[in-house]
Every structure is written in C-alpha cells, then in structure tokens.
Amino acid sequence: MSNQQQRRGLSRSPLDTVIPRGETVASFDTYSEAQRAVDRLAQADFPVKQVSIVGDGLKSVERVTGKLSYGRAAGAGALSGAWLGLFFGLLLVIINPASDLVFVGAAVLIGAAFGMMFTIVSYAVNRRRRDFTSVMQVLATSYAVTVSPELANRARNVLGGSQTEL
C-alpha cells in the first residue's frame, strides 16, 4: 500500500486504528441504512474497498434484560456448563471411538453441575453489586458513508438522492 493511500486513511489492515479519511457521500441515522447504501454501491460494481462506514457520536448502551436471582444464576451456569461438558464428551468419543455415548451424557451432567456451582458461588459473592442481567452495546448517533475523494461523485450518483448530506 502506498504512503499516499495510508495518509488518506485507506489502508485496510485489520490492525489499523486510523480513522478512515475521505469524502462523506451519505449520512444515515441507523447502521442498517448505511449498510444498504454500501450494498447498493457493491451492486453497481463500485470499488467497495474504497468505502467506509464511520459511526459518529458513540454511546455505550446497557439494556437491562431482567432481574438476577439464585435460580436464574443456577440455570445459566448449568446451561453453560452442560455445553462445555457436551464438548468434552464428544471430544472423548472422537479420541476413543470405543467409548460409549454414556460418557457424553455423564460429561454433560458433570459440566452442568460444576457450571451451576461456580455460577452460584460467583453470584453469592457479587449479589449486592449487580442484581440484574444486561446486554452491552456501543452505538453511534449517526453513520457516514465515506469514499476516497476521486470516487465521491460516482458514489453520489449511484446512491442518488435517498440520503442526507453532512
């Protein structure tokens, strides 16, 4: 990649932490609208490697999904432990084909028991600090579709007038 491309922010290494630079050709309120705009560009054979979706005004949003109790903690721990037990049980069957499927069932039950035990202990220690379950998200207040300056007019023509300019 040339230095000129890197200065414009068009480098595409997954480890890059440079904000993409270029001209904003459209702005949207939701990420899905910005995705649809990029899909339209891709369908028009636009060089999508030159396109970025940049979120602006990032906010951390935690949505509370329910109240946590010993019962819910035990159920969640048993379920995650059972999945781990199933994995190890199937791994045992793959490594030793002579073993019976009873081993898989035993591994699931043992995993569920240990998962439940560890989750209940963890919940008991942290109970008064966090008595609810939640899902954390990082959202933007707006999403800008940017392209390299030499392709901006072409992108605007493809997208038409269905977006808001910044």
TrEMBL record:
Pfam families: YflT (PF11181)
UniProt cross-references to InterPro entries, sorted A to Z: GSP17M-like_dom
Transmembrane spans: 73-95, 101-125
Residue ranges of every copy of the General stress protein 17M-like domain listed in the record: 24-109
Domain of life (superkingdom): Bacteria
Alphabetical keyword list: Membrane, Transmembrane, Transmembrane helix
Name recorded for this polypeptide: General stress protein 17M-like domain-containing protein
Taxonomic path: Bacteria, Bacillati, Actinomycetota, Actinomycetes, Micrococcales
